[in-house]
Amino acid sequence: MIHREGYTLILATLTLCGVGAWLVHRSTIIPSWAAWIAYIIFGVLTILVVQFFRNPQRNTVPDPQRIIAPADGQVVIIEKVREPEYFGDERLQISIFMSPINVHVNRNPVSGVVSYFRYHPGDYLVAWHPKSSTLNERTTVVVRAHNGQEVLFRQIAGALARRIRWYVAEGDTVKQGDEFGFIKFGSRVDVYLPPGAQPLVRVGQKVSGGETYLASW
């Protein structure tokens, strides 16, 4: 399945690569070996763009006692930090780095009501840069779960990610595992949990959005 965010770009890529291949085929000055290299490049580019926007079905098993990974990728940070934008106190931060080959659909880590949302324009530092969470283009979403506790999760644009999409607003009721956004071409998602939350993953672990449990209350 292809995500709706990719329809326009995939069509443009197919058109450009198709025209490029046709021009190479019609050329009388390009040697055959160079033409085959061009065909391969056009084919690989098309495959890369299509695979980036894939949207595989996920088997989310809702669990009100656990927080689900909001994105595919690798866990790069698990530490207690001060969260300054909304909580203003110490929280458990778990960060997931999404490479360009990961699925880039973002999913709600908990069910509940969106109590806070903000979009912040910003820079495009590499996603693993320590200051990317405060300087890069980003969104901040806070959901109040059914137990009254709040989870903050933040989409962060990277050096290649130049467009963040979100599908939630303050007051919305959201379901664990459902889509809340999409980030194009490499990025990071930070999750901030109450200090008493217990991590269920480790740094370096690969996780699947909507399926892997990050932590428990």
Q: Which stretches are low in confidence, meaning pLDDT under 50 for 5 or more residues running?
A: none
Number of strands: 14
CATH hierarchy, class of the largest domain? Mainly Beta
Largest sheet: 8 strands, antiparallel
CATH domain topology of the largest domain: Glucose Permease (Domain IIA)
CATH superfamily of the largest domain: Glucose Permease (Domain IIA)
What is the total domain count?
Answer: 2
Given helix and strand content, the structural type is alpha+beta
The gyration radius over C-alpha positions equals 20 Å
Measured by DSSP, the beta-strand proportion falls in 35-45%
**Helix residue percentage:** 10-25%
At CATH's second level, what is the architecture of the largest domain?
Answer: Distorted Sandwich
Question: How far from one another are the termini?
Answer: 33 Å
- Order of strands across the main sheet: 9-5-6-7-11-3-2-13
Helix and strand string, N-terminal first?
HHEEEEEHEEEEEEEEE
Overall 3D shape: elongated
- The averaged pLDDT comes out at 87
Number of helices: 3
Give me some keywords for this one.
elongated; 217 residues; 14 strands; 2 domains; three-stranded antiparallel sheet; Glucose Permease (Domain IIA); alpha+beta
